[in-house]
Specification:
The protein is α+β, with helices and mostly antiparallel strands and 79 residues long. The chain has helices at residues 24-30, 66-75; strands at 2-7, 13-18, 35-45, 48-52, 54-55, 60-61. The protein is built from 2 helices and 6 strands.
Length: 79
């Protein structure tokens, strides 16, 4: 799966996870948030989530904290 980590209107990080067949730029154009914090790929491993790689088209790369943010959002979708 791919992901883009946006900064939402309150300044909090907000991950959007989507299939690999959708281009980063195509997904970016659909989301109203102005700031991209990170982008890359996300996998589920035995240890949890792993985020890696980058989006050349968005000039953004995966960050070490992204996996924790994604896991927290999935564990508590009301955040």
């Amino acid at each position: 799966m791919k992901y883009i980590m946006f900064e939402d209107f309150s300044g909090a990080p907000l991950p959007i996870i989507f299939p690999k067949r959708i281009d980063f730029v195509e997904m970016r154009e659909q989301i109203p948030y102005t700031k991209v914090l990170a982008a890359g790929y996300a996998n589920v491993t035995d240890a949890g989530f792993a985020c890696f790689g980058a989006s050349k088209s968005l000039a953004a790369q995966a960050r070490s904290e992204d996996a924790q943010i994604i896991a927290a959002m999935l564990a508590n979708p009301d955040i």
